[in-house]
Amino acid sequence: MKAHRYQKLLGLLEQLPAVLTVLVAALAVAISQLMTVDPNTLLSLILAVVALLATSELIARCRQQRRIDESTQKALYLLQAQAGGQLSAEIFFQKKGASSFETLAEEATEIYVVGATLMALTNSYRKILINRLQAGVSVKLAIMTPDPSAVQAASERNGDHRLDSWAMHFNTTRFNIEFMRQNLRDQGKLETRVFPYPPTFQIWMFDPDTPHGNIVVEIYPHLAVETEYSPVFSLKADRDGVWYEYFKKQFEVTWANAENWI
C-alpha cells in the first residue's frame, strides 16, 4: 500500500514542472497584454519558461528510461526463468484490470465467472457483458449465497465484520444481473448460481473447452492483508496443460454444486 502511494505521489511530482510551465507562460502572456512590462522582467519570465520546459523534458526522458529499465529487468527475469526452470513472481503474477477482461471477452463465445459477490466485476463490466450476451455469447456467473452462515464465514476469513457491506455487495450484484436481463431477448444465455460457502479465489474463463481458451485466477486475501492488489495469474489452454485443467475443474465443480439463482 505504501509503495503504491509513493508511486502515485512520484507521478504527481513528475507532472509538476509541466503544470508550472503552463502557468508561468500564461502569466507572461497576461502581463504583457495587460500592462507595460520591463524588458528584464519579461526576459526573466521567458527564461523561467525555458528552464521549466528543459526540466519537463529531462523528467520525461528519466521516466522513459525507467520504463525501459523495468522492461529490461522483466526480460532478464524471463530469460533466467527459461534457463533455470523457474519463473519470477514478478513475471508470473499480474495486476488484474479492465483491459484484460475486455480483450479476452470481446472474442469469446463463452464467459464463465465464479467469485465471492462479483459486485466489482458486474459494476465494471456490465456494459461489456450485455454487449457480448446480445451477440449470442453464453455467460455463467456464480457467487456464494447471501445466506447468513456463508456471509459470516466470509467475514471471519477477511477480517471484515461489517455485515451491512456484504448485503450492499449482494444487492448491487442482483441489481446488475437484473439490469442485464432486461436488455436481453434470449434470457437463457445468462445463467446465475449460488454456492453455500465463501470461495478462496475468483476465476474468469473464456472459451475454456477450446484450444485457445484462457483462464484468469485471483487469489483472495486472508484477514484483510494490506496490499493494493491480490495475486492474479493467467493460464492458457495451449500452454499450461495440467494447471489449466485444474482451475477449469475448480469452476466446473463449483458450478455443478451450486443452485440456480436469479
List the topology elements.
Blueprint: H1 2-34, H2 39-84, H3 89-92, H4 98-105, E1 110-115, H5 119-134, E2 138-144, H6 148-158, H7 163-182, E3 190-195, E4 201-206, E5 214-219, E6 232-236, H8 241-256, E7 259-260
Helix pairs in contact: 1-2, 4-5, 5-7
Tell me about this structure:
With 262 residues, the chain is of the alpha/beta class. The protein folds into two domains: 90 residues; 168 residues, Endonuclease Chain A (Endonuclease, Chain A, 2-Layer Sandwich). 59% of the residues lie in helices and 15% in strands. The chain contains eight helices and seven strands. The chain has a seven-stranded mixed sheet with strand order 6-5-4-1-2-3-7, with helices on both faces. Helix 5 links the parallel strand 1 and strand 2. The longest helix is centred in the N-terminal third of the chain and has 46 residues. The chain is elongated. It starts with a helix and ends with a strand. 19% of the residues are buried.
